[in-house]
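Narrative progress, year one. The postdoctoral researcher (J.K.) led the effort to move from monomer predictions toward full complexes, under supervision of the PI. The following entry was the first complex the group processed end to end, covering 1270 residues in total.
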Amino acid sequence: MERKKFFKSIGISLIGILFVKLFPFRLFSKQNVNKRKIKVHINPFAVKRKKIGEKNV
Amino acid sequence: MKASLLDYLLRTRLPVTIFVVAASFIITFFASRAERDGVGYTPDQPINYSHKLHAGEMQIDCQYCHVAVEKSRHAMVPAIATCMNCHKIAKKDSPEIIKLAEYYNSGKTLMWKRVHKVPDYAYFNHSVHVNKGIECESCHGEIKQMEKVGQMNSFTMRNCLSCHRNSHERLPYIKDVKRGPEDCYTCHR
Amino acid sequence: MSDPKDEVQNQDPNYWRSFEELYSDPKFLKEINNEFKDGADEAPDTSKMSSLSRRKFFALLGASAAVAGAACSDYQDRGEIVPYKDKPEEITIGKANYYASTCGGCSSACGILIKTREGRPIKVDGNPDHPVSRGKICSQGQAATMSLYDPERLKTPRQKIKNRFEDINWQQADSEIIEALSNIGGKEIAIITNQIISPTENRVLKDFVDKYTATRIYSFEQFNESVRNIAWQKCYNSDEFPIIKWDEAEVVVSLDSDFLGADYNRVENTRLFSEGKDVINKNFNRLYSVESDLSLTGMNADYRLMLRADAQYAFVMGIINELQSKNVINNTVNASSFNLSKLAADFGLSEKILNYLINDLTNKKGKAIVYAGNHLPEKVHIAVNLLNEELGNSNLYNTKQSRITVRKLSSLNDIKKLADKMNSGNVGMVIHYGSNPVYNFPADINYADAIQNVDKVITLAETENESANVSNYVLPINNTFEAWGDAKTRTGFYSMQQPVIAPLYSTRQKESIILSWINGNSDSNKENLYHKYLMSNWENEIYPTLNSRIEFKKFWFGALHDGVVRSNDTSTGNGSFNYAALSGLTNHQNKMKGMTVHIKESYSLRDGRFANNGWLQESPHPVSKVTWDNYAAISTTTAKKINVKKDDIIEIKVNDRLLTIPVFVQPGHADDSITIETGYGRTNSGSVSEGAGFNANTIFSSSGGITPWLYEGVTVKKLTGTYRLVVAQTIYDFTEEDKKDIPEKRGIIKEGTVEQYLNDPHFLNDKKHKDLKSVNPPIPYDGLKWGMSIDLNKCLGCSECFVACNVENNIPVVGKEEVDKGREMHWLRIDRYYSGTAEDPKVSVQPMLCQHCDQAPCETVCPVLATTHSADGLNQMVYNRCVGVRYCSNNCPYKVRRFNFFNFRDSFNDSYQESPVFALLHNPEVTVRSRGVMEKCTFCIQRIAEARSDATRESRKMIGEDVHTACQDACVTNAIHFGDINDENGELYKYRNHELGYHVLEELNTKPNVTYIAKLRNTHSEEA
């Protein structure tokens, strides 16, 4: 009887592990927040510095 | 002679316990090493870009696309416009290029699966390594032969430090190579 | 044999545990023989227990853990990496770009260099090519990036419909306003602005007046130099008070003037003044400060006298009288009733110091300057102008460069007339053009009530404020980093402003809004409407006057690149002194009545416009170190007189106005004087400003005071209740003998006098410690080793460095309650020590940061080795290894390690700092720390790493001068030097090995790498 219980539990655990490995749980995940409401744009007319000038100090 | 408890413990229990602990540790360690190091991770990409074709057969230089690698900390994945430089015309009808053009024209974000990632608490600096003459292949493996990019080397701190310490052996193609820094703040700011 | 129990019970005293025992209850007596109560030794009832045995429970536990582990099959997933579609040419990911622009924080218009990363501005520093700022910027400019990314900025236009604000779109707002403008009829259109410093903006306003002729423009700044300028006009018939050549002054006499702190033109004043505190070139000036409160300037004075502000007229006339009677200056005015000795006796001034003052003014004729505070009345300024003229100190007026006012400020009379017109219903529309009159206007004008009579009230603002709250339309405007502009504040050059980021929200530049109303068409507002207007104004009006040899497009490009455009206009010089002005000086000493109140601009919030900026709110007051609140500062004697102590609440009555405010007992404050800073007590201005301080503008009036900022005849009443003022540094105790003067005794502060130093440069050495022995063998540092020096002569305690460090290193704002527990996260702090008596203290300041000790006590005690020492002398902090034991902070004798008790970004103000837009503010090269890790100054390791990377790229060795720490860059007086201690040709070497250099707490043998240059006070030898 013990042997039966033993193999039954091994069998169930193997099925459980297979299930967890194969099932695509990914479907339930949060999607990456694509809604970037704030857009960072550079103003095309701005002029950037080539040299930083004489040292600050 | 009465078999004492201590005798049983020492002859049977102790070796069995040691064996079980050691076996489980060793098996877990080696079996999970790939997972821990990340070596071998070769994900599917949204567009099947082949480095073997572009970098290998056509011999396009790494830095033609990965522009910032010599100037800044990051190597930078190229902008889609860089691809369109050639692919406005080249192989316009291939299904992968059609996918690419769709991304470019619609403005949809092209989410490449990231292959190489150093954790956030380590600040890796590409430009220092490149400017010292280290080749891309030393860390990223034989990219020129990869259809799909995968991680070939482990990016654990142990691996980085081993190259820093044995730079002479690991980088034989650089003359007078010095040992890399071992101070914590080199990477951990 | 008697029952032992009975014996016990019969003995004295009789102890009993319950009534049953006392009255010998028979049931009790039976039970007492049983050791255990009934049922105690029965077998357990298994039917009542859980069916889950322990064994099963553990089995389940293990199994679920195993399943969870097996389920994490996507362990290797590293997320995504996203490229640009079209990479902007300017951007190299990981490298910063710099843009020259102009700061919009105040009307000084200092030139700035904005550092951007991937298109986001993250750090502001001065523009080295700008003649005024010369590479430096004040703390408001440093913290300005936080205002750009403020989550509470206005994002869309709003209209008040039935007492609630609704979002509307620009077309609707514009068309309704344009319609109202066209149908204004005979009523006035009032535009209320701050000080206009931009010539092009001025032209836009003029164009608006041309189109809508009923418009009148009112420019208002709560704190300004109008009194000084009026006095100057009377004396020299010239509109602008000159720029002072502080660097050429050997003696400076400051009469209640905070010229190094909150008064106008701080950056230039500090930079020039500190040239006279030079231990390398041995150039020492002497500062006398005669003031009512202990200001930043007074903290750094060599000699200080405390005098209530309404007695300043008597004081300066007393000096004139003394000098006239000694024939040092000509007799030009009758000042005979002002006797200096009697004044000294009346006001408790030291005769000795007064004698030194008179002698110095006599001996240093032409090389000294007397300077009066902005809030003092006209007659004081006239007297000071006379004094300077007669002493020949007009030498120190800069004749090569003078100030230019693009548009004069309106007088308070004009403002009063506006309010009258409003009350009589003659004003049809009011436009608050970036200003906040409901908060800043004098309270007696009752502007908030007057505005009820105006049909349309429009506020153009970046954030909500008090004026927006009572408006019909609230229109959001661009932040200065999103805006185009130019500025003209001085002869000789123009300053350019360019946007470094496109507007984050649906905001418009305020000039553009006005332009589209002039055009009469909302659709005319394209994104670059003002840019075009600016360029065309330059091309047509300004560029021709510059006689430039290059064509306009190239010139414009260069102008934006440099940020400064040189022009040909020169100063017209000052006229000669008009002695008719002296008729305003009466030979009559007024009696002092009641107390005086001086209303001052806040050091951190200015006139309140920065109230929603957490960094500035948490920046401690340079003198009192109070954060997050304002207070009424009074002297210890006055506090005893009205029986109050710190945190008690008082009610101040100025004419008929009342103000309830807590008290702060300020050592060194003049008696019967109260000083209050404004900018606090804001309402409807953002959640950070909510509850911070008290609105002192309730007593700011246009009349009834000596000047709008100075009132006499003030009475004070103590109220019940207290208000906890949070101080970032402990209150100094002058009374206990063993606590007094600890900084001097422990060698934390070492000082001397200039005379001592010039006689014996090595006078500090006898205070130094002999070579101490250590258990650890010394580690040789042959290569580059980082060190820092802080020159306490040049350090004024102004806190620029402090704010710059916060910006550079992503320091979180923790809020008032946490500061109260000592949990503020500032890596660099300015310690302020008093010595002497509470009534007349001497003040010493010392910036304290991680000393990066060679034998650091923190490194040896970390159980996980999260903090170690690098090969180039830095104490490294590895955040990911730290487990939060806090032994390192415990062991640090300088207490410079800060622990993240909470994730302050999450806990302060309901995760204010975790808003998505706030994340744009962070410096990407510095870790954003979470709960449970220790942090401290890293000597800007991110800058060192970047310099090393640049040096590698350019195939050269890195030297000490390649790296500037954030604090070093920000310090206006260049008190901080950083570099390689082993480099004999480097900047740092002469400071590190200077005879005045010492280390703090040297005797602990921690071998710190921050050298402090001892402060020398320029006092006479008996004072030493």
